[in-house]
Write a structure and sequence with these properties.
This is Saposin B-type domain-containing protein. The structure is a single chain. The protein is mostly helical. About 40% of the residues lie in helices and about 5% in strands. α7 links the parallel β1 and β2. α1 runs antiparallel to α2, α3 packs antiparallel against α4 and α9 packs antiparallel against α10. The structure holds 2-acetamido-2-deoxy-beta-D-glucopyranose (NAG) (9 copies). One 2-acetamido-2-deoxy-beta-D-glucopyranose (NAG) binds next to loops. The site of one 2-acetamido-2-deoxy-beta-D-glucopyranose (NAG) has 4 residues, from α5.
Length: about 325
C-alpha cells in the first residue's frame, strides 16, 4: 500500500516533469494509481464496502463534470451500477477507470458480464413453401416512438438550458422570462409529445381509417427526460398508453414491443439470472397485465419472463415481438 502511494506520487511528478502531459493518458494513469492506492484489490470485502466512496473519490480527484456524473452513476443508476462496478472491480480493479468517462484508452470488456445465449442448433434446410395468395392485403397501423411527456406544459420554455424542454420546471438561464413558449400541440426542438396530441392523432386515425386489421406499437412510450426514469412512472406509462389504444381500438388487436426507453434506467434490462432485488426488471408483469387481451394466453408467461411474445395472426403469418433491449449495445 505504502509502496503504491509512493509510486503514485513519483508517477505524477515524473509524468509532469518528463514529457508534455497528454491529458487523456494522465487522467487514466491517475485513476489507476488511485485505485491501487485505495487498495481495492486487497480483498473482496473492501470492494463490497466502499464502491460508492471510491467512485466519488476518483470523480473528485479528476474533477469529472461538476459531480453530475458521480451523482448520476450513484443515484440514477443506483444499485444496478454498484452491482456492476463491484463485479468489475473484483475482476480487475482498473476496470473502474475504464468505466468512468475520463478517456482511458482501453475499453473494458468484463468477462463476467457476457450474456450467454444458447443457440438452438443449425439453421434448418431451406424448403420451398407455396406462396400465399397474392391479392390479400392487410392494413396495419404502426406507431413508434410516441415519447409522450406527461409534464409537457404549453407556455413553458421551449429553448431551455436542460436536455428536455417544454416542461413545467424549465428555465432559460440566460434571460428572465420565457423566450420561446411551448405551443399547445407540440414544439419542434428538445420537446416531446403532449398526451392530448397523441389522443387527437388516434381520434383522427380511427375516423379516417375504419378498416385497420391490427396495430403495432414498437416501443419508446416514455419522454426523453431519462434522468427522471423510475419504475413507478414507467408502469404508469405502459398502462396509460395501453389504455389509450384500447379506448380507440376496442375491437382491434394491438401488439406492443419494448424499446430502449422502456428500460429503467434507460437501456437497462437485467438478464433473469442476475440476483433478485432491485436489478430484476419489474415491469414485465405490468406489461402482461396491460396487454392480456392482445397477447395469447399461452404467451403471457413469456412476457412475464423476458418481455417478448409470438402471435399467430393469420394462417401463414406470425408476429414476433422482440425484447429489443436484448440487442441494445448500451444494455
Ligand atoms: C474475490 O472474489 C472472486 C469471485 O467473486 C474470487 O474469484 C477471488 O479469488 C476473490 N479474491 C479474493 C482476494 O478473495
Ligand atoms: C469477508 O466477509 C465474509 C462474510 O461477510 C467473512 O466471512 C470474511 O471473514 C471476510 N473476510 C475478510 C478478509 O474480512
Ligand atoms: C481529463 O481530466 C481533465 C481534468 O480533470 C478534464 O478536463 C479532461 O476533459 C479529461 N479528459 C478526458 C478525455 O476526459
Ligand atoms: C383475390 O381477391 C378477389 C376479390 O377480393 C377474390 O374473389 C379472390 O378469391 C382472391 N384470390 C385469391 C387467390 O385469394
Ligand atoms: C436558445 O437559447 C440559447 C441560449 O440561451 C441562445 O443562444 C439561442 O439563440 C436561443 N435560440 C433561439 C432560437 O432563440
Ligand atoms: C417545479 O415546479 C413545481 C410547480 O410547477 C414546483 O412546485 C416545484 O418546486 C418546482 N421544482 C423545482 C425543482 O423547481
Ligand atoms: C418517479 O419520478 C417522478 C418524476 O418523473 C416523481 O414525481 C416520482 O416521485 C418518482 N417516483 C419514485 C417512486 O421515485
Ligand atoms: C393517461 O394519462 C393522462 C395524463 O396523466 C390522463 O389525462 C389520461 O386520462 C390517461 N389515459 C388513460 C387512458 O389512462
Ligand atoms: C432496493 O433499493 C431500495 C432503495 O434504493 C433499498 O431500500 C432496498 O434495500 C433495495 N433492495 C434490494 C433487494 O437491494
Amino acid at each position: 500500500m505504502r509502496f503504491l502511494i509512493l509510486g503514485f506520487i513519483i508517477g505524477l511528478s515524473g509524468k509532469s516533469l518528463a514529457e508534455p502531459i497528454q491529458l487523456d493518458n494522465t487522467n487514466c494513469t491517475i485513476c489507476e494509481l488511485l485505485v491501487d492506492a485505495i487498495g481495492l484489490s486487497l480483498d473482496n470485502n473492501t470492494v463490497d464496502g466502499c464502491v460508492e466512496l471510491v467512485v466519488l473519490i476518483v470523480c473528485e480527484a479528476l474533477k469529472i463534470e461538476d459531480e453530475r456524473v458521480c451523482k448520476g452513476i450513484v443515484s440514477e443508476f443506483g444499485s444496478e451500477a454498484i452491482y456492476i462496478l463491484k463485479a468489475l472491480i473484483k475482476e480487475d480493479p482498473r476496470n473502474l477507470c475504464g468505466f468512468l468517462p475520463i478517456g482511458c484508452g482501453y475499453k473494458f470488456d468484463p468477462k463476467g458480464f457476457r450474456w450467454p445465449l444458447v443457440m438452438p442448433g443449425l439453421k434448418p434446410q431451406h424448403e420451398d413453401v407455396p406462396s400465399p395468395p397474392k391479392n390479400q392485403t392487410l392494413k396495419v397501423l404502426h406507431l413508434s416512438d410516441l415519447h409522450i411527456d406527461n409534464h409537457y406544459l404549453p407556455g413553458s420554455e421551449a429553448n431551455c438550458s436542460e436536455p428536455q424542454c417544454c416542461r413545467s420546471n424549465n428555465t432559460n438561464v440566460e434571460k428572465a422570462g420565457v423566450q420561446i413558449p411551448a405551443a399547445y400541440w407540440g414544439t419542434i426542438g428538445n420537446c416531446d409529445l403532449p398526451y392530448w396530441t397523441a389522443e387527437d392523432m388516434l381520434q383522427q386515425i380511427t375516423k379516417t381509417h375504419t378498416d385497420i386489421d391490427y396495430v403495432v406499437v414498437s416501443g419508446d412510450l416514455e419522454s426523453h427526460a431519462v434522468w427522471t426514469y423510475n419504475t413507478t412512472d414507467h408502469a404508469y406509462m405502459i398502462q396509460n398508453v395501453s389504455g389509450l389504444l384500447r379506448k380507440y381500438f376496442p375491437n382491434t388487436k394491438v401488439y406492443f414491443a419494448l424499446g430502449n426507453h422502456e428500460g429503467v434506467p434507460i437501456d437497462n434490462i437485467a438478464p433473469h439470472w442476475v440476483p433478485q432485488g432491485n436489478l430484476s426488471y419489474q415491469l414485465y408483469n405490468v406489461m402482461a397485465n396491460a396487454w392480456d387481451d392482445w397477447v395469447p394466453d399461452d404467451q403471457l408467461a413469456v412476457v412475464k419472463y423476458r418481455g417478448c411474445y409470438m402471435v399467430k395472426l393469420y394462417p401463414g403469418l406470425r408476429l414476433i415481438s422482440f425484447n429489443t433491449l436484448y440487442g441494445d449495445p448500451e444494455n
